[in-house]
Amino acid sequence: ANHNNNLENFETMKISTKPVSERTPEKDDCSLVRSSNLEHSDIVGCTDDSPKKLKTSARLESKVPLSTSIKTDVKEIEIARLCRNKRISCQDTIHEYDEDDNLTMDTVGRYLEAHPAVVETWLREKASLQLRQRLQNTCMLQPITPNAPSAPSVQQEENLLNRSKRNSITSDLFQTWLASSSPAKRSRSPNRPYSTLMDRREELGRLDESDLFMELIRDVANELDINVLCHKILVNVGLLTYADRGSLFLAKGPLEDRYLVAKLFDVTQETELDEAIQRAKNEELRIPFGVGIAGYVAQTKEIINIKDAYKDPRFNSAIDMQTGYKTTLILSMPICNYEGDVIGVAQIINKTNGSNEFTKRDVEVFQRYLTFCGIGIQNAQLFELSVQEYRRNQILLNLARNIFEEQNNLECLVTKIMTEAKELLKCERCAVYLLDLDCGEAGHLEKIVERPGKSVQESRKPLSRRESNNIDMEDIIQQHSSTEGSKFTMVFEMENETQEARVYRPSNNNLSSSLGQIARYVAATGQILNIGDVTTWLKKDVMESGKKPIRSILCMPIVNGQRIVIGVAQLINKDNGTSFTDSDVSIFEAFAIFCGLGIHNTQMYESACKLMAKQKVALECLSYHATASNEDALRLVSDSIPSAEIYNLYSFTFIDFDLTDEDTCRATIRMFKQCDLIQKFHIPYDVLCRWILSVKKNYRPVKYHNWRHALNVAQTMFAMLKTGKMEQFMTDLEILGLLVACLCHDLDHRGTNNAFQTKTESPLAILYSTSTMEHHHFDQCVMILNSDSNNIFQNLLMEDYRRVMKVVESAILSTDLAMYFKKRNRFMEVIDEGEFDWQSEEKKELLCGMMMTACDVSAIAKPWDVQHRVAKLVADEFFDQGDLERLQLNQQPVAMMDRERRDELPQMQVGFIDVICLPLYKVLSETFPWILPLYEGTTDNRKHWQDLAEKVEMGLTWIDRDTIEEPVEEFVSYEPKDIEFTVTTLNCAHADKKEQMPERSSLGRFASLRKGGRTLSKGVRHRISRSLYTRSSSEDAGKSKALLPERKNRNKLCLLI
After folding, report:
1. Is 775 annotated as a binding residue?
2. Is 749 marked within a binding site?
3. Where is pLDDT greater, at 1045 or 919?
4. How remote is the C-alpha of 398 from its chain's centroid?
5. Is 705 known as a binding-site position?
6. Active-site residue 231, yes or no?
7. What is the SS3 assignment for 907?
8. Which of 134-138, 241-245, 1031-1035 has the lowest mean pLDDT?
């Protein structure tokens, strides 16, 4: 009866027949068609009483008139029965086809082009499921675009390629889902917009059991929105079981504390999705497992079919009293995932067809449907989690961008952080406590530049919400004594009412409050506190004047990059009245990391600003004290400058030993005058004098790398330019730059080399990774020149200033021997290529670099008496560094810096000459013959060092004391001839100590022949006895001892062996 009533409500139907052959159409060849121009009463058909002879829709595909569209929603047997009741005969057709109709494919095609809705309607309502799937696959493989060219364009190919590269299906689905604001719009039903089975109930009724469940699976498996999916489940199950309404609960919470939350509540077949969602939010039902009917089902996984709800003690009648609806029948069933875990409970109520119970068939349909729904729900939940994670990542990225854009002001940064936190975690209040870490002092920066491997504060284990409940308030109070060192200097608070941050310095009352004590505890322990019920946890109500009661708190430490706690963040009261979940803790922890970095960076920026101000003050003081006084400058200005010949400036054998400090400055001025640099570059004479005095003042009083070394290097450069005629290859600006570089190339030298700076991790090594000291020398040079009273380049054009500073920088860096070894091979190649012009930028830089190295080591080419004296100074400076390495680094120094191996110095000097000096001077003298004296002087000195090295190998001692003495041959040649020498071997075991050791004055210069108490070899003793001494005849020990009291005689000396 219901089916007949539904049929009466359908659109107007009429029956037409179509002949199969030339014969008159038979009575049984009839079908039901819809005409758009008939009234509801215009029903025609056939009067045949046999419904079995009705033709199927598949047979009618070639018989239906194209002027009508097909529409049927009931079984054919019912159509035949209606035809009999209406007494409709096949002769009453409105149109018949015969061969005169000339029906062709062209005619059909033109009609379908004019009426595309006909095909769509027939496919949707008459085509089988297999046919629709086959057509869908065909359309997906061969998309047809109207008026599209036969071959795809280049742009189309690029678009297809780009879509395939980014997995367009998944990406488009995800982006569409994110862009949709309404859950219904996010529905992913395969063939139609969001709809339910209500629209297709009759269609599904014609499907067999396997096709029905395939359609049900397709309906839920493609749905990714959890709200839409749950709504579909309830509506579809209601249609299949004739249930009046239903509810769906999803399981939440940890395994040991599971509960149900009403996702959709009291959904009927007419309930819209948005209405159902809002109703569930308003109810906010939360049912623990085991409580009520749904809770019992969730806990036991049993199916409950109740015929009278009010007789079941688990039923809660309060909801009926609230809504005015009477619940009689209840069918409640668990929804499980593939592992068998309960993820929800579905519940349907009352029947609409008058039945007084849910039948076994209803239970079976419900159960089988929920089996597939469980998979769909879990997939939708996973997708929802991925979307939430995506959005949280977007929020965190946006936070990171905002944080790192706001680096200038700490208050603005923290305000932005609290605003983002409240929006992200939906809480009523937010507070940030900042600790006083003495960030403004320089010591804080020292922690930043510490090398890896230093001790870093260990990260502490966060406390979950359940672990937090195990901590008593008394634990926090007991921590006060240990947290005195961790004091909060600033507190930021923000509430929903104001949305503005309140900033204040906390008083003792603020810190002694419950929130203050919790913050201090978290700062001291580094643990996360998630308190769900503050009143229970604190064992008292927490009320603050003018503010809402505190229900829940999430308190977390804020750490910097070194995992040091720099503050504490507090979130107070969730907006929905619940406690903060573990998911909130996870999000807030990631949030706190960004906040910690942002706060730390902002503090560091403020600290850097303060340090920059301090540095500026320090530089001003340094510039004042590093600049020569006006009195000294005026005195030098008024002095007369001797000629270059008086100072021997043109010679490669220049010696500065006899020059006073004032003479060294005058000699420097003379070099500038001889090169005519003062006139050419308009250098103020008083500025030049002050600059020279300032440069001299900024050299430290180390043994070798001091002002006098700089003067010697500059003089050698002057001699190479003038006497060596190298000035023909240089411009005046380059000559100026080279002389300035020579005078400044070792500014502020500390008596230690680059390797020592690296080993000790000095600030210079951190500041400059390569050529450490050379970069520092150049920076010192720039610092002196930047002073107005010392800027000898003040009258240069901008371009000339840039070029001369480039020459100075390149020349100073070239004094690093590491740079020399890098450039030497290239310099040799240029020489071998026959270069003679040297005007290109690269070759000019190479030549200047080689000249700087030649000048820097030019002491090796000085006369021998000067060279071995300079070698003493160099060795003493190296030995001092070796002593520091032993003392500070506990390391064995290299040979040339090891005081204990000082006897090897001659051999090391020979190696230094062979590896560095001779190859350089040889190639320079062969290319530029006017500087041959450098090569010749080096060759002569090598012979001296080689001779000394051989004497050391024979057992003679080059160095006998803490400082280097004169070499052996220097005092052998002028030893008095009339002194009688006696060689005596003493028995130290029997002789008195005072008698054994002759006075130092008596031994004189021969003390250097003694080598640490070691007995000389026989060959050495033989040579000494033959060439130097008159050895007395061997006598008894008493006679030998009798000679000792005569050692004070000036004409007799004893050599102890």
Report:
1. no
2. no
3. 919
4. 16
5. yes
6. no
7. helix
8. 1031-1035
